[in-house]
Amino acid sequence: MDKKLKRELEMQAIRIRMAVIKGTFNAKSGHPGGSLSVSDIMAYLYFHKMNVDPQNPDWEDRDRFVLSKGHTAPALYGALALKGFFPESEIERLRKPTSFLQGHPSLRMTPGVDMSTGSLGQGISAAVGMALGAKLKGADYNVYTILGDGEIQEGQVWEAAMFAAAKKLDNLVAVVDNNNLQIDGTIEEVNSPYPIDKKFEAFGWNVINCDGHDFDEIDAAFTFADKKNGKPSVIIAKTVKGKGVSYMEYAVEWHGKAPQQEEYVEAMNELEDRLSELETLAAQE
Amino acid sequence: MADIITKATRIGYAEGLLYLGETDEKVVVLDADLAGATQTAKFKQKHPDRFFDCGIAEQNMIGIASGLSLSGFTVFASSFAMFASGRAFEQIRNSVGYPHLNVKVGATHAGISVGEDGASHQCNEDIALMRSIPGMTIINPADAVEAKAATIAAAKYDGPVYMRFGRLAVPVIFDRDYKFEWGKAQVLTEGNDVAIMATGLMVNEALMAAEQLKNDGIQARVLNIHTIKPLDEECVINAARECGCVVTAEEHNVIGGLGGAVCETLSENCPTPVVRVGVDDEFGRSGPAVELLHLYGLDAAHIVESAKKAISLKK
Q1: Which listed site, A66, A75, A248, B306, has its alpha carbon 20 to 30 Å from B173?
Q2: A122 in contact with B, Cβ within 8 Å
Q3: Average pLDDT of chain A?
Q4: Is the separation of the CB atoms in B141 and B226 below 8 Å?
Q5: How far apart are CA B300 and CA A101, in angstroms?
Q6: In the CATH scheme, what architecture does the domain B6-171 have?
């Protein structure tokens, strides 16, 4: 991947993380852990991969995105705001009664949201339906969806996986955000879905494993998924829950809790430091 | 009396789909391995490119319907009422109702008249489930003619619709030039002694009951409530006000269905005695459909008895 682009994406990912912290802090609730683990992939999708137009959110030929793990909406909102779908100031009003930023994505309320999600296992089915719809129309846009690794415990995910392969939907790319943690513990402790890659392989998907925080690997994975060989593709992204905020990393308690004042300051300081570091590097390059 | 022609409402549904297949290229039909029974196989045969069998996976089927509707298609997703409204309730609630998508759930084999398959397949709860979803329209046609007309009308309406059809061949009440009026209750007989508000296959029973009541000098006003939600409140309230008592009749649990909807409307707008005819909050059982309908009191005789009870409750 081009060095300049990579640096730019790294910076956007930090800005998305700052939106996650700002949003959940002001809302006094929300899901920072999983939002931080998908921030790099969100940056890659919205600032490199996907063909979308913030001035025309309903543009018919746009690529579609469904956040099947809807609770990590703060990361999606961060990406949408930075992309220009709505003002960044709205992030601070996340989860407030007068805001259009709901706790989980809402199709009818938020510009740029392609499907309402939040109840786990359902988003992927809608994404599969969109991919089928594109084939039926002869349209050549792609459909992207992100699933949680805990989410794939839902049976509906496998109903959707079976259907997508059976209908040869190679315009569909799913990502499993494999941060290994769910509310009640590690995913192995709770109800292990491993081996995730072998399961999707058995369901007839192209399977790509990658480091979900390394843009070169992310880029290689999505590029591989573009090959359109008659199979849907899944990228199993190894990630760290809470990535980018040291005290939240690998800590399941940050699945669904907001930072307090001091924690907020600490998180923002760390992210700001990282951002200026990246900006300095970018200026030197 | 002329011979009675009988036809299941699911056949009317398929006829509606066939008409739409010819006239509206945006119509797509989904099924969950029951295409022969739900009758969507007829659409599949004519339009294989716009028919998708999702297999035995109703939850995913509803999500597929959502995705297709977001791609600009008008989607009819079919299964038995039990699995469509029950198994996939939350998918309909969250992936269709909440985003208010243009998905029509074509649910066949509703009610006790499924017959021999027994309680596991006899869904008497679907109207209650679907009524509780904001923005959902519920259509329960009385005969195959109305079923066809309602299916065609549903495709013209932009939003979620739950359509309820039966397995059993039931008398055809309406003639070919019948006009379906979306959201409007239909007054089938005039009368001011008791209002009988019926839906689905109970409409024909209500008409027979009205005939029998005439022998006792009772003039019943029979209403066909094909659209249960939104309820035609004006027509319901007028009938209650002018008749002074009401009987509701449905092939559904007496809780949460048409009876519930009528009671809720009347208690707030025009308190009126209401006697509910329906499945009395119990599960069904195996048996021939017509026998079961009598066994569970879903017939004209029970409506007659209930009408007399309702009249006795008038102040």
Answers
A1: B306
A2: yes
A3: 97
A4: yes
A5: 53
A6: 3-Layer(aba) Sandwich (3.40)
The reported pTM is: 0.97
Three-class SS state of A280? helix
pLDDT of residue B2: 59
Which segments in chain B show pLDDT lower than 70? 1-2
Mutate to test the interface with A, among B30, B31, B64 (most CBs of A within 10 A): B64
> In CATH, which of 3.10.180.10, 3.40.50.920, 3.40.50.300, 3.40.50.1970 is domain B186-312?
3.40.50.920
Four-way CATH pick for A3-284: 3.30.2310.20, 3.20.20.190, 3.10.50.40, 3.40.50.970: 3.40.50.970
C-alpha separations of B89 from B62, B84, B86, B290 in Å: 9, 7, 5, 29
The residue extents of the domains of chain A are 3-284
Catalytic residue among B15, B22, B25, B58: B58
Is B305 noted as a catalytic residue in this protein? no
Question: Whose structure tokens read 């066939």?
Answer: B18
Of A33, A17, A122, A9, which is closest to residue A77 (Cα–Cα)? Answer: A17
pLDDT at res. B315:
79
Q: What is the pLDDT of residue A179?
A: 98
User: How sure is the predictor about A117, in pLDDT bands with cuts at 50, 70 and 90?
Assistant: very high
Q: Give residue-wise pLDDT tens across range A52-70.
A: 999 999 999 999 999 999 9
Q: How far is CA A64 from CA A128, B24, B35, in A?
A: 11, 25, 30
A218-240 pLDDT per residue, tens: 999 999 999 899 999 999 999 99
